[in-house]
Specification:
The chain is mainly α and 1053 residues long. A hairpin with a 4-residue loop joins β4 and β5. The longest helix has 31 residues, at 2-32. This is DYW domain-containing protein. It comes from Ceratopteris richardii (Triangle waterfern).
């Protein structure tokens, strides 16, 4: 047995000797410790192979030397010498073998030399080797890679014995270069000659179908696939999905489906895949349900299309039903099905189910664990995403693009910049870095995690510039960084370089125009969309409707909608736009129109309708929509349920909100909605208890959950609980949330002061433009110069936006800094190239008025409309109270503004108007939020309301009576003066604090309403008399009264 193995090994060595030559064989013998001589090997060659071979002088350099010299000449492009060398090889009775041709072809492809490729093809023809299918296949692929399909077809035409690989190569070449018709002719000719194709041929044929945009041809190829073993192959299934998602328009898909004489599984699956891939998931799910009802057994394409549709709309219950159908068809172990199941569960925020599918996977192929990485990334779980990567990296020879996309998205979610940089180096090592989709994920990571602009540019420089996705990624990266002007410049440069935008690019640029509030540029892009023929694309149409809705131009938004044949996505966008930016009554009218039209009412429509009811405080309309949702069986959708809870709580029916919460299956969305409802009604203990219950139910709180609890703690004014919640956020790996970071530094500034806030601000993982704006607002609340210094630090990291300067102008207004306010406007315009808008001019005018120079601002104020928002209306009255007449106040009868209107008219000339606006609302019992305050003490928080007077506080009223001279609100008697001074809850709370704390102790009070002028004046007196610091946080700002009786707001409140 041992001798037999030795003989086999020697024979293989002798075969290699023909290629290696004498010198290389000698080296090989030396390394292996062989003792036989080369002539002996030649004699053995004669014995075993019957080859008569006598070494000559020319062969002393060996075969490797002869062929190596020829190969070198070809690779250097020395064609005449190469031809001579080839002739010399032929004269010696030898021939350049297939391996040498393969090596020179690979070198030619790597160097992208078409002229060299044609030179090689000429040499092959001279050697009469073109009949070899192996060499011919490599030649065709070479010309395909180098962009010359004509040469590829010439090679194929001269082959005498093409095999299945050669057919695949020429079909792929024609399909890739737009010769779809010829590619399909070759495909059908191959079927006649060779019979069954392999999986590569099917993929090439489908590529040809995409090239000519023929849905019927794609379905024919799909029929061929179903008759083979390749139906569930990953590569073939992926090609089918891509084909159905791109071939023809949705109108073509609908027409093909409706006119099909026989609706078999291919017909159904093609339509389902097309709708799900092209942004109409509702129609895809409707077709899937009809397919099941028609007793047509779904195939893998239908299942994957339906799962993608569920993922798009968050239909978890429907997804679980489809999962059951998949198990029944015994397709649940197919890798692509497992991948789509994981993706569906992750998008529906059911990570437990996604992990269960992953753990039950038997094959654990790359596509499966890539989906698991993406699922963890979606949920912001970087640690587990990296763990899956490390578990599987040694099982494959190389990673694919999806692996690195998932990892980069996980880094983006967690703002893990350094980890993202590390993965970029890994993707570069695996030769994935120059792929547009990988580059897009890396650029997104850098743009959202605080990477340098140069890093984004470096990534883009390595991407193929002829790919539209590369440019689209760069546009979105600049938009993520808040640099909208640069995003538009890149869009223009892209077109100047001859790259045509696609639907995704137009959608991105339209979103940029929306964020810039640039209606002129938006219309210009719309005209380009029309010229390019993308106005009927559902994704572009949605972006157009979103843009026009934000501009409050619903006429143009409707015009876009009316031109569409497939309207579902656009209808959702229109409804959402009306609810968010239009009048809520118009949104409800549009909802009624949808009901009558028979269009599908999605969860987005119901959520938007309920939001409109909330804005109108229309409980009756909300109840009607609730009944409609029950009738259409969407009431258990988590997003609809959460919208119902929000609607009932905002319309004053907390009991109904709680009934909705208890009636269905609890989800993260419904828990968050109930948390917000409790916070709104001041039920802080219930909020904390519910927060604990959601964790007991196995739900991991997200940033929305934490923000609700943080609002509750801030209202209660407990700094200790705020810090404990912050520790919880860090423990649960949620600190990467920029929204949470901004919320916490704001709360620390409110509860503990700016020094405490700065400590936490400096540790934030991401300081984007919004975070910087928040920090500047905190600084500006303290001092204008501190905010200006903060701006200097900001420009070193991010580019300011118009909202940045609003914070500085607010600070100037509070400090009567007219000159500095003008300086800010000039800074915007001259240094940062940002045009001040109406808000900035209004703030400047406000500053001028506060400084007693209103006449200088009259030119700016005369054209300003009265603010429609009631909070702004109250501030407007407060700031300009000495310059308004009674008539300007009619039509704004909001209960929360009555006391401010009274302040405006509390002077001798307008005493009756003050009586009208202060006493009359009491007479009609206008609704208003009860004033409540919280006094922070150790070890507990004491909640007080104005009606809950203790005997101690009654006795302490004497402290206030000496201040009666400051009363301004419609005083008619001494008793009225005393009640006006002593009845407000913040004064009672301060009194309570003084009575229950030691001398010199700082008193911290939190109030749910704005502090009135009387209370502000009295608190100044109390802080001076008691020699205490008193800090009041109302619904508008922080008031820090020092022991000298001065307030941090400089009496501008």
């Amino acid at each position: 047995m041992v001798w037999l193995l030795v003989v086999k090994w020697i024979l293989s060595l002798l075969l290699w000797s023909q290629y290696l030559g004498t010198d290389n064989l000698t080296l090989y013998k030396t390394r292996c410790g062989l003792t036989f001589s080369f002539p002996h090997a030649i004699s053995m060659n004669r014995i075993f192979f019957g080859v008569s071979f006598t070494p000559t002088e020319n062969h002393k350099i060996g075969y490797a030397g002869v062929f190596g010299n020829f190969r070198l000449l070809v690779e250097e492009g020395r064609w005449e010498e190469a031809k001579a060398a080839q002739d010399d090889i032929h004269e010696k009775g030898m021939r350049v073998n297939a391996n040498i041709w393969q090596l020179v072809i690979q070198h030619c492809i790597a160097n992208k030399g078409l002229d060299s490729a044609r030179g090689i093809w000429k040499l092959v023809q001279d050697s009469k080797f073109q009949g070899n299918a192996f060499v011919g296949t490599h030649l065709i692929r070479m010309f395909n890679m180098l962009g010359s399909v004509e040469d590829a077809n010439d090679v194929f035409a001269k082959l005498t014995r093409p095999n299945v690989y050669t057919w695949n190569a020429v079909i792929a070449a024609n399909a890739r270069h737009g010769q779809g018709d010829l590619a399909l002719k070759l495909y059908y000719r191959m079927l006649d000659i060779h019979g069954e194709p392999d999986d590569f041929v099917f993929v090439s044929a489908l590529q040809a179908c995409r090239a000519i945009g023929s849905l019927p041809e794609a379905k024919v190829v799909h029929h061929h696939i179903t008759r083979t073993e390749y139906e569930t192959e990953l590569m073939v299934t992926t090609a089918l999905l891509e084909t159905y998602s791109t071939v023809g328009s949705l109108d073509d898909v609908r027409r093909e489906f409706e006119t099909s004489p026989k609706r078999d599984s291919i017909t159904w699956s093609a339509a389902i895949a097309a709708y799900s891939q092209r942004g109409d998931p509702v129609e895809a799910l409707r077709l899937y349900q009809q397919m099941v009802q028609a007793n047509v057994k779904p195939n893998n394409i239908a299942f994957m299309g339906a799962l993608k549709a569920c993922a798009s709309v968050g239909a978890l219950d429907q997804g679980k039903i489809i999962h059951g159908h998949i198990k029944k068809c015994r397709l649940d172990t197919e890798p692509l099905i497992e991948s789509n199941l994981i993706d569906m569960y992750a998008h529906c925020r059911s990570l437990i189910d996604a992990v269960e599918v992953y753990q039950k996977s038997l094959k654990r192929e790359m596509v499966v664990w890539n989906s698991m990485i993406a699922g963890y990334a979606m949920c912001g779980n970087l640690h587990d995403a990296v763990k899956v990567f490390e578990e599987n990296i040694n099982k494959v020879s190389e990673m694919n693009a999806d692996t690195y996309i998932g990892l980069q998205r996980a880094c983006t979610k967690q703002v893990a910049l350094e980890q993202g940089r590390s993965f970029q180096k890994t993707s570069d090592y695996w030769d994935q870095f120059d792929k547009p989709e990988v580059g897009a994920a890396i650029m997104e990571m850098y743009s959202k995690c605080g990477g340098e602009p140069g890093e984004i540019s470096a990534v883009f420089d390595k991407l193929p510039k002829d790919k539209v996705r590369s440019w689209d990624a760069l546009i979105r990266a600049h938009a993520n960084q808040g640099d909208m002007q640069e995003a538009l410049r890149v869009f223009e440069q892209m077109q100047a370089d001859g790259v045509k935008p696609d639907a995704a690019t137009f959608a991105s640029v339209l979103n940029v125009c929306s964020m810039m509030s640039d209606v002129t540029h938006g219309r210009h892009i719309h005209e380009q969309v029309k010229s390019a023929g993308f106005e009927s694309d559902s994704i572009v149409a949605k972006a157009l409707i979103d843009m026009y809705s934000k501009f409050r131009n619903f006429t143009d938004a409707r015009a876009v909608l009316e031109k569409l044949s497939s309207k579902q996505l656009a209808l959702d966008a229109m409804m959402a736009g009306l609810a968010e930016y239009g009048h809520p009554a118009d949104a409800l009218q549009f909802y009624e129109e949808l009901k009558v039209s028979g269009d599908e009412l999605t969860n987005i429509v119901y959520v938007s309708a309920l939001k409109s009811c909330s804005r109108m405080s229309s409980l009756e309309e909300g109840r009607k929509i609730h009944e409609d949702a029950k009738g259409r069986n969407v009431v258990n959708d988590p997003y609809v349920s959460s919208a119902l809870i929000d609607m009932y709580s905002k319309c004053g029916s907390l009991d109904d909100a709680f009934k909705v919460f208890n009636s269905g299956k609890c989800s993260l969305a419904t828990y968050n909605a109930m948390l917000r409802a409790y916070v709104q009604y001041g039920h802080f203990e219930e909020t904390l208890k519910l927060f604990q219950n959601m964790q007991h139910d196995g739900l991991n709180p997200n940033e929305a959950s934490v923000l609700a609890v943080l609002n509750a703690l801030t209202t209660s004014g407990d700094l200790g609980d705020c810090k404990r919640l912050h520790a919880y956020v860090i423990e649960r790996d949620l600190e990467a949330s920029a929204a949470l970071g901004r919320a916490f530094i704001t709360r620390y500034a409110n509860l503990a002061g700016i020094e405490e806030a700065q400590v936490h601000y400096e540790t934030l993982p991401l300081r984007d433009v919004t975070t910087w704006n928040t920090w500047l607002a905190i600084l500006a609340d303290k001092d204008y110069r501190a905010a200006l210094k903060g701006l200097e630090e900001m420009v070193k990291e991010v580019k300011p936006v118009p909202g940045t300067f609003s914070n500085l102008l607010n600070s100037c207004r509070d400090k009567d800094l007219v000159g500095e306010s003008l300086e800010v406007l000039k800074l915007m315009n001259d240094v940062h190239n940002l045009k001040p808008n109406a808000e900035h001019y209004a703030l400047f005018a406000d500053t001028v008025e506060r400084a007693g120079r209103l006449n200088d601002a009259e030119g700016l104020l005369k054209d300003l409309p009265v603010p429609a928002n009631f909070d702004n209306w109250a501030a407007f009255l407060s700031d300009f109270k000495s310059h308004l007449s009674a008539n300007s106040c009619f039509g704004h009868e909001c209960a929360s503004d009555f006391k401010w209107v009274s302040d405006v008219y509390a002077n001798d000339e307008l005493r009756m108007d003050a009586f009208k606006y202060y006493v009359l609302p009491k007479a009609v019992e206008a609704w208003k939020n009860p004033g409540s305050v919280v006094v922070e003490s150790e070890p507990e928080m004491t909640l007080m309301r104005g009606t809950e007077l203790t005997e101690k506080i009654e006795k302490h009223k004497v402290l206030f009576k000496d201040g009666r001279r400051v009363v301004r609100r419609s005083p008619t008697s001494d008793k009225a003066k005393e009640e006006a001074l002593c009845g407000h809850c913040e004064r009672l709370a301060i009194s309570f604090g003084i009575l229950n704390t030691g001398p010199g102790t700082t008193i911290r009070v939190s109030k749910n309403l704005r502090v009135c002028a009387d209370c502000h004046t009295v608190t100044k007196l109390m802080s001076k008399i008691e020699k205490r610091d008193i800090i009041i946080r109302d619904s508008y700002r922080i008031h820090h009264f020092n022991k000298s009786g001065e307030c941090s707001c400089n009496d501008f409140y």
